[in-house]
Automatic annotation (TrEMBL):
The keyword Ligase does not apply. It catalyses: alpha-D-galactose 1-phosphate + UDP-alpha-D-glucose = alpha-D-glucose 1-phosphate + UDP-alpha-D-galactose. It comes from Microbacterium pumilum. Keywords: Carbohydrate metabolism, Galactose metabolism, Metal-binding, Nucleotidyltransferase, Transferase, Zinc. Its EC number is 2.7.7.12. Transmembrane segments: none annotated. The gene is galT. This is Galactose-1-phosphate uridylyltransferase. Its cofactor is Zn(2+). The keyword Nucleus does not apply. GO terms for molecular function: nucleotidyltransferase activity. Belongs to the galactose-1-phosphate uridylyltransferase type 1 family.
């Protein structure tokens, strides 16, 4: 076996980080569990090095000010392949997948990204290159037909080498390793030139649009502040800089709390849009996962696992969801925009989904199908049926 050139770094909770490169130059990072059974070596990616697609281009919608990335290379991504051709499994002689070696947790640059790769900075913090964004003021400027290169980064986070599962099916130790990886990648991506916001998330289930059954999530590093976060920052300006502290206090005094710990509380929000919607928030202000303490990460692992397993206990089959970690922008609102998870599912009954039709999709005017208090009571009972996560 050819041994890859590895850069080694020890992280928190006994996690070991091993950084290398794929055949085409993309970054590949292994995060080893503290109790890993793996050896220190990793195989070289011996595949033929094909050229990477050109960085996508984004176009500005003058009606909203939003930027839309046009990433045609994504049309060629894998779609529900059989287990023997799983592109996120360790490579075998018959499966030339993305990851050469057996692993615990692996992170790599997406082969067909919506953003990136990030461009090197010529001077200051702005990326260089053809038509690259030159800061937020440049992106906010008016005009028709405006385009920019979609600089940034899209990464895949593999939670396990197994072919099926999700974050919620992992062990407590493995969940803690993934959290350490999220925090580490948040810090690294935030430091890239041109990156304005970092977003870790997990899509789970074909009803959400997942094209790979392998347990994994993604991290997007955007060259702008996303529309959802711009709206959040405007709300903080309107409501006051202590908005998140007041929301947490308000929800903790309601009947919508699902579970709580020393550092985190999970609740169904007062104005929930989705049939199943849960927010998970730290008790102190932190802008992103990189700013959390070891103690906060230690508690998050079992608490989050129990929440996800409770979501799955609602019905006889796994529940589709989007688990979105909202983090403060890299350069704005870090003293006021608090890290929090928003977990949403369109599942409104065992055999029914909520589809975004006219009012929600066209006008952004939501109509809730289930009272948040009813949803909270059902979910609280489901979580209560899940034992404490100790392994």
């Amino acid at each position: 076996m050819n041994i890859a050139d590895i850069q080694l770094e020890e992280l928190g909770a006994g996690v070991v980080k091993r950084t290398t490169r794929m055949a085409d130059g993309r970054a590949l990072i292994y995060y080893d569990d503290p109790d890993t059974t793996l050896g220190p070596d990793r195989a070289v990616d011996a595949r033929e090095a094909f050229a990477r697609p050109e960085t996508a281009t984004m176009r500005r919608d003058p009606l909203t000010g939003d930027w839309v990335s046009i990433a045609a290379a994504r049309q060629n991504r894998a779609f529900l392949p059989p287990a023997e051709l799983d592109p996120l499994a360790p490579q075998t002689p018959t499966n030339p997948s993305e990851i050469p070696s057996r692993y615990d947790v692996a992170v790599f640059e997406n082969k067909s990204p919506s953003f990136g790769p990030a461009l090197a900075a010529a001077q200051g913090d702005a990326p260089s290159g053809a038509d690259a964004p030159q800061g937020l003021d440049d992106l906010d400027a008016p005009g028709l037909g405006r385009t920019r290169t979609s600089v940034g980064r899209c990464e895949v986070v593999c939670f396990s080498p197994e072919h099926s599962g999700s974050f919620g099916t992992q062990s407590r130790t493995r969940a803690r390793t993934v959290i350490e990886a999220w925090a580490d990648r948040t810090a690294a991506l935030s430091a890239l030139p041109g990156v304005e916001q970092v977003f870790p998330f997990e899509n789970r289930g074909e009803a959400i649009g997942v094209t790979l059954a392998h347990p994994h999530g993604q991290i997007y590093a955007y060259p702008y502040i996303t529309p959802r976060t711009m709206s959040l920052l405007a709300s903080i300006d309107r409501e006051g800089p202590d908005l998140f502290a007041r929301i947490l206090e308000f929800e903790q005094g309601s009947g919508r709390v699902i579970l709580t710990g020393q550092h985190w509380t999970a609740f169904v929000p007062f104005a929930a849009r989705w049939p199943l919607e849960v927010h998970l928030m730290p008790h102190r202000h932190v802008p992103d996962l990189a700013a959390t303490t070891p103690e906060e990460r230690d508690e998050l692992a079992p608490l989050y696992l129990r929440l996800l397993r409770g979501v799955d206990a609602l019905y006889d089959s796994p529940t589709p969801y989007i688990a979105a970690w909202h983090q403060a922008p890299v350069h704005r609102g870090r003293d006021t925009a608090r890290l929090h998870l928003q977990l949403t599912s369109p599942r409104r009954a065992a055999d029914k989904l909520k589809f975004l039709a006219g009012s929600e999709a066209a006008m952004g005017a939501w109509i809730g199908d289930i009272p948040p208090e009813t949803s909270a009571a059902r979910l609280r009972d489901a979580v209560a049926s899940i034992p404490e996560v100790t392994e």
